[in-house]
Design a protein that fits this description.
Layout lengths: L13 E2 L2 H9 L9 E4 L5 H8 L4 E5 L2 H10 L8 E3 L16 E5 L5 H10 L6 E7 H8 L9 H7 L2 E9 L4 E2 L6 E8 L9 H13 L5 H4 L25 H11 L5
Helix pairs in contact: 1-2, 7-9
């Protein structure tokens, strides 16, 4: 079966457990009418279950060897639906006119970048689901007050409801990774706009967590001009992991008039 060499440079760990592949495919059952884009199909273990579900499926794969394998072994998937490309550089709007779902056994070394790409297309992607490193999954799903609540938690949860679904053991992969994995599901929430300047919101979140051990009055100060009186407000004595998304919106609005 295994005729594709897993490449360390691409972060490839091929799923070899069909029961887990089916469980991942099942996470899209709430969106039966939407087309599906699978990222990094590798040898197609998940792909097969998506095809069995009669999904309108397109796969994008960077590894030329995997692309050749898929074209040879998945004759029920048209060749034009097997795209050899870097997902992070792909213009998703050129593939779909309307909404679509994203799924995959994501390369761990670019999983955060994949989710940020999904955020860029959030109004077109109502559901994104798949497998990532367990620690990253915990971080994405973390609540305020958690030690692992951070940039990914806030920026993703602003637009998606995040579920940590289940953990996957290392032995479910070839070769086994050195870490455990987890399957997460992101479902678009009802938010249509931020209650603040979105660009500044991102800057505040990233600046705050890049100095997460400091109180907010110290971490956001570099964003501001000379007038920092607003930072005397009690909310700025908190640390970033203590703030909800609504509170990040609040402090964004508070400091916007004083941005340098």
């Amino acid at each position: 079966m295994q005729s594709v060499r897993p490449k360390k440079s691409l972060g490839q760990h091929f799923l070899n457990d069909n029961s887990i592949a089916k469980r991942i495919a099942d996470t899209l059952d709430g969106f039966p009418q939407l087309p599906v884009l699978e990222v990094g199909p590798g040898t197609g273990v998940l792909t097969r279950f998506l095809i069995d579900k009669d999904k309108n499926l397109t796969v994008v794969e960077l590894d030329r060897e995997s692309v050749a394998y898929l074209k040879s072994n998945f004759t029920d998937l048209e060749h034009e639906r097997i795209i050899e490309a870097d997902f992070l550089r792909l213009d998703l709007a050129s593939l779909y006119d309307g909404q679509f779902c994203v799924i995959g056994n994501y390369p761990y070394n670019i999983s955060s970048q994949i989710f940020f790409k999904v955020l860029d297309y959030r109004d077109a992607i109502p559901c994104c689901t798949g497998m990532i490193q367990k620690e990253v999954a915990i971080r994405i799903a973390a609540d305020p007050g958690s030690k692992v609540y951070g940039i990914l938690s806030v920026l993703l949860q602003a637009w998606y409801d995040v579920e940590y679904l289940f953990t996957v053991h290392e032995n479910a992969f070839t070769p086994p990774p050195k870490v455990k994995s987890a399957v997460v599901r992101l479902v678009r929430n009802s938010r249509t706009a931020m209650n603040c300047n979105e660009k500044l919101f991102k800057a505040v979140v990233k600046t705050s967590f890049n100095r997460r051990r400091k109180m907010l009055r110290n971490s956001v100060k570099p964003l501001m001009g000379e007038n920092t009186d607003v930072l005397q407000d009690p909310i700025f004595t908190k640390r970033p992991e203590q703030l909800s998304i609504a509170q990040f919106e609040e402090i964004t609005n508070m400091i916007e008039p004083f941005i340098a």
